[in-house]
Amino acid sequence: MPYRRTPAVQARLDAGRTKLLAAAVEVLSTKGYAGLSVASVAAAAGVSAGSVYTHFDGKSDLVVEIFRQVCTREVAAVVAVAAHGSTSERVAAVVQTFAGRALKNRTMAYALLAEPVDPAVDAERLVFRRKFTAAFADAIVAGIAAGEIPDQDAAISAAGLVGAVGEVLVGPLSSHESVDVVPGLVAYSLRALGVRDEHT
Fold first, then answer.
1. What would you give as a GO molecular function for this chain, any one (predicted)?
2. Number of helices (H), then strands (E), in the chain
């Protein structure tokens, strides 16, 4: 008869995995992808490195899971603010939320957006970008339908905005410059879509 984990054993394993993920998020937030290792996560969690391998195949597998969790949270924050208002309000809210949250945790945001990573992690980064693009596209489609912005290819415009916002953020995130780029990003995004900037 095959071994079945008891609910107590499964709960202990789940708690261990949750503890490791929390420790990994902490390490990624302070040291970035380059500074994260199985050993550093194990130390932050107060367990042996072998315990990490009980739950994850290695660093890449662990970081893929972190990306999924953190990106899901970040996308949810952006989608929530993009749900209501005029096109300019929705686009401004997406940019302000996306960039504002990134600038609050620069090391983590740099890891999510631009730091060199393993191919499996880079694949998750593309999923993350597509979800942010969809949030912009929804606002653009609604704006076109309402006559608030000129007719345009919403998918291309949205991808362009995600690329522009990400590229502008790379400088402050990688160098920890204390520059507030958010107002300029909002103004640029609105101009790019053909709306007058109401936020400057």
1. DNA-binding transcription factor activity
2. 9, 0
Number of structural domains (the chain) is 2
Q: Domain check: are 6 and 50 in the same one?
A: yes
pLDDT digits (tens, 9 = 90+) for 101-133: 999 999 999 999 999 999 999 999 999 999 999
Query: Do 80 and 44 have their domain in common?
Result: no
Per this entry, what is the length of the chain?
A: 200
Q: What average pLDDT does this structure show over 140-161?
A: 96
160 and 70: one domain?
A: yes
Give the list of residues 6+ apart from residue 97 with CB closer than 8 angstroms, or none. Answer: 77, 78, 81
**DSSP per position, 44-104:** HHTS-HHHHHHH-SSHHHHHHHHHHHHHHHHHHHHHHHTSSS-HHHHHHHHHHHHHHHHHH
Residue 199 confidence (pLDDT): 46
**Of the residues 40, 55, 70, the one at which a domain ends:** 55
